[in-house]
Structures are given as C-alpha cells and as structure tokens.
UniProtKB/TrEMBL annotation:
GO terms for molecular function: ATP binding; ATP hydrolysis activity; transmembrane transporter activity. The lineage of its organism: Bacteria, Bacillati, Actinomycetota, Actinomycetes, Glycomycetales. This is Putative ABC transport system ATP-binding protein. Coiled coil: none annotated. The keyword ATP-binding applies. GO terms for cellular component: membrane protein complex; plasma membrane. Residues 8-239 form the ABC transporter domain. Keywords: ATP-binding, Nucleotide-binding, Transport.
Length: 244
C-alpha cells in the first residue's frame, strides 16, 4: 500500500504554449494536492486546461513555471529517463482510445507494462487483475473480439498490473455507451474503495464525475470550483454554468 499523504501535488503550476502575442496560458498558477486513496474528477469547458493539468501532473508535459511532485519526488526538472522510470513503476494510464495492441490477446496486453519495465510477468498476477475487472474468461481474446467496454476494462487492468501509486484516466468513458460507461465507473470506484487506489480522471461525463470523491472545475487554466461527492445533477448544473 502506498502511504504518501498526497501522492500528486502541483504548486504554482503554469503551462504556456507559444510565445509573444500567440502565447496561450493553458494553466495559470494551479495549486492542488490529490489525497492518497481518493478519486478526483477534473471537469471544465473545452479549452479550460483539464487535459493539460492531467498531462503535467503525470509528467507527460513539462510545466512553464511551478513545481510538480509525484509520490514524494519533485519531477519538475526530471530527466526523460527518470520520467520514463516513474511512469513504468508509480503511474498507470487509462485513455479514451484504449491504446491496446491489436495483435496481442487481452492477457498479453495487460502484461506489456511489466515487460517494458524489464520484469518477467507473473501469469497469476496478470490473470488476477483481469479477474478483478471481470474479464478472466476473455484473457485469450484480441481487442477486435471485445466490446468497447471490455477493451476499456483491459486497458484499466493493464494500467493496474504494476500496482501504481496513481492512476491517471483521460476520458475513460468517452467512447463507451451508457451501460459500458457505468460498468467502468463502478470498476474504478471499487478500486478506490477496496484497493485504496489514488485516481485522477479528466471527464466531460457528469455521471462519471459523480462517482468520484470530489470534482474540480477548471476555467481559463484555473481551478474555479470544487464539489465533494456531488450528484450527477449538481455536476451537470455547475458545468453548464461555466460553459455559459
């Protein structure tokens, strides 16, 4: 169990794209800590900076100013090698597009992060995580033989197999129908409740956000509001107010 009180912390984080008159301030002095064992949803209008926030927090993008700490270490000026090692050991990713390898089975896709980290996959561990996402009987199926919801669950299993301190999810229900989206959010909720998984999720789906412990709202690169365990209706109303 990872015990870092706030495994992800951003202090004064600014991210600027471009220069001079063409400069765009995607993040503007963001201060936020994500508590261990909690699930935080990040929402906002298009262009609000929510994906940039996720990418900077995960070390996928460099910040222009401020500091980023992940699992107790300052990654602001980390080398590419250090960031790669961090992403292979302490961070898991689940994206809207799944990013599964079409020629590999579900079991082989899940084992891939272990192989990339130079570890010999333990078949029992791989099957255990597939069982945890309800796909033990689909382990030999390739992505084309799985539904969208099943592919997303394979992607989450792949993110979880290394037992990361933090799971970053970027629109994990965005490509799913309502039933599949509910199944994925229920799975993510159980990982937080049963495993103490720290989860940070960008979403545009009020129902997905309402499954989280809290929802942060961004506008123009700043955190402008937050709700604790809101209802779907409360999330939708707050988001609509920001988009007006």
């Amino acid at each position: 169990m990872h015990t870092t009180e706030s495994p992800v912390e951003l202090a004064g984080v600014t991210r600027v794209y471009g220069k001079g008159d063409a400069a765009v301030r995607a993040l503007d002095g963001v201060d936020i800590a994500f508590p261990a064992g909690s699930w935080t949803a990040v929402m906002g209008p298009s262009g609000s900076g929510k994906s940039t926030l996720l990418h900077c927090a995960a070390g996928l993008e460099r910040v222009t100013a401020g500091t980023v700490r992940v699992v107790g270490g300052d990654i602001t000026n980390a080398t590419d090698a250090e960031l790669t090692r961090l992403r292979r050991t302490e961070i898991g990713f689940a994206f809207q597009t799944f990013n599964l390898i079409a020629s590999l089975t579900a079991e082989q896709n899940v084992a891939m992060p272990l192989r990339l980290a130079g570890r010999r996959p333990d078949r029992r561990d791989v099957r255990a995580v597939l069982d945890a996402v309800g796909l033990a009987d689909r382990r030999r199926h390739r992505p084309r033989e799985l539904s969208g919801g099943q592919q997303q669950r394979v992607a989450i299993a792949r993110a979880m197999v290394t037992r990361p301190a933090v799971l970053f999810a970027d629109e994990p229900t965005g490509a799913l129908d309502t039933k599949a989206a509910r199944a994925v959010t229920a799975l993510m909720r159980s990982m937080v409740d049963e495993r103490g998984q720290t989860t940070i999720m960008v979403t545009h789906d009020p129902a997905a956000a309402a499954a989280a412990d809290r929802t942060l709202f961004l506008c123009d690169g700043r955190i402008v509001d937050r709700l604790e365990r809101p209802t779907t209706r409360e999330v939708a109303a707050r988001l609509a107010a920001l988009e007006d």
